[in-house]
Here is the input.
Amino acid sequence: MTSMTSTPGPAGRPLLNRRLAEFGTTIFAEMSALAARTGAINLGQGFPDTDGPEEIREAAVRALRDGRGNQYPPGPGVPELREAIAAHQVRRYGLALDPDTEVLVTAGATEAIAAALLALVEPGDEVVALEPYYDSYAASIALAGGTRVPVTLRPSGGRFRLDLDELRAAVTTRTRLLLINTPHNPTGTVLTRAELAEIARLAVERDLIVVTDEVYEHLVFEEPDGSGGHVPLAGLPGMRDRTLTISSAGKTYSFTGWKVGWITGPPALVTAVRSAKQFLTYVSAGPFQYAIAEALALPDSYYDGLRAELRAKRDLLAGGLADAGFGVHVPAGTYFITTDIRPLGETDGFAFCRALPSRAGVVAIPNAVFYDDREAGAPFVRFAFCKRTEVLEEAVTRLRHLTP
Here is the structure.
């Protein structure tokens, strides 16, 4: 059957904007529907199956009852949240921000990414991004009329590594910005301080803007160079005035449905992003903003406990996947594990993931959807471990009996 998007409309043109022609229904929607249809355990889409801290949920209820945020909140975000974001950046990383001019609240990190690219990229501009990449990167670059230039992370020595020479070679006179993601989804790689320093040197040398997606900042399990945790790119020499940093409450506090994110940076860049953002959602999540302001003030023990819990879940699933015959790349961060299906005699991640629910009662995501070079991503499959321990244990049991 011909899809509505490809059916000719007035004047014979397809209905869907040609910039989005390559993007259909996301793989997450397809695989989640497959999980629902088959009753398989969904380790595909990255959302927790339990809520975050009870006191933060109650803070949202209290805001609703008190009438805070039930009407349009301020465009940049409620002052309490902007101040909490600024306080968090100082406390955790020593980065001082003006909450009035250097902090913008968004409808999750996805809107922050879209607004930044729509604001800063013009037709013909090149955007260098680490491949594999979160799927909204490609769509947002396309919507802005830019050209994406992937630099592929490749497995080596147990982790996916960035080739800094390849990154440097990808930058041309048409490059507008670098789009960096660390901790990295889907590979789980955490860029080292040395790698980040080289990215910073390149950005300064070529006078580039850098948009850095750091939504998994609190989910760093091992620092590959002993750096002591997440290293914000904005804190490195020369980067304060050219970096936009994106983060989100969903991954840290397990309230992904609230869609509270933020973008921080120098006033001129934040103002540019706000100019685009105001014509997307304008504002969102009013009462939830007050709750996340309280969440950002949680003590360090909360973040330590979250990491410890997810590290144990990572190890449980990684061990089960290895026992089932997968090649396992144990992540240093995020809550995803990338596996190699070639040890199982498989090479096509799409076919493997579509068959996995009937073969083992588990749903995963083919990493090839995150690549321009589909062949490079073909043998890799991603599993999420942000689920209850008993769910992961059942998934491991099912995968152990994976039929050839």
